[in-house]
Amino acid sequence: MMDLDIKPSLLVEALDPATPPAVRKGLAKLVRTAQVLSEQQLRAHKGIHLHRIQHQFDPATGLQLESLEVTEGARLKAMVQGPRLVLLSLHTDHDATYGKP
């Protein structure tokens, strides 16, 4: 089981009225699921798809950035910091998560 660390800016994004209800619902489900799974289980989970984002690192820690699926199009950027999963930002545009134009 991983500890979750949710950045305040992510909560602001999630609660923004412009965030689609399906994304908010998917985020709530992801958080509930992530609280009870290990890192290995999150990586193997068919609905969450925790995986590394190539060539993207957190500037403060140097840790590899990760992506988690919220909905078919929305993703979370996160990083694994030891036993903690740090949820950093919400992206309702799939490509924006990976820095694609």
If you had to describe this structure to a student in words, what would you say it looks like?
The protein contains four helices and five strands; from the N terminus they run βαααββββα. It has one domain: 2-Layer Sandwich (YaeB-like fold). The model has no long low-confidence stretch (mean pLDDT 91). The chain is 32% helix and 32% strand. It is an alpha+beta fold. The termini are far apart. The longest helix is centred in the first third of the chain and has 14 residues, at 21-34.
CATH topology descriptor: YaeB-like fold
The parts where pLDDT drops under 50 for at least 5 residues are none
How many helix segments?
A: 4
Number of DSSP E strands: 5
Overall mean confidence score, pLDDT? 91
Number of domains: 1
Strand sequence of the main sheet, in spatial order?
Answer: 1-5-4-3-2
Task: Give helix and strand order, one letter per element, not per position.
Answer: EHHHEEEEH
Sheet with the most strands? 5 strands, mixed
Tell me, what is the CATH class? Alpha Beta
Give the fraction of residues assigned to helices. Answer: 25-40%
Query: What is the radius of gyration computed over CA atoms, rounded to a whole number of angstroms?
Result: 13 Å
What's the short story on this structure?
The chain has four helices and five strands; from the N terminus they run βαααββββα. The chain has helices at 8-15, 21-34, 39-44, 94-97, and strands spanning 3-6, 51-57, 64-69, 75-81, 84-91.
Mind sketching the topology for me?
Blueprint: E1 3-6, H1 8-15, H2 21-34, H3 39-44, E2 51-57, E3 64-69, E4 75-81, E5 84-91, H4 94-97
Parallel strand pairs: 1-5
Antiparallel strand pairs: 2-3, 3-4, 4-5
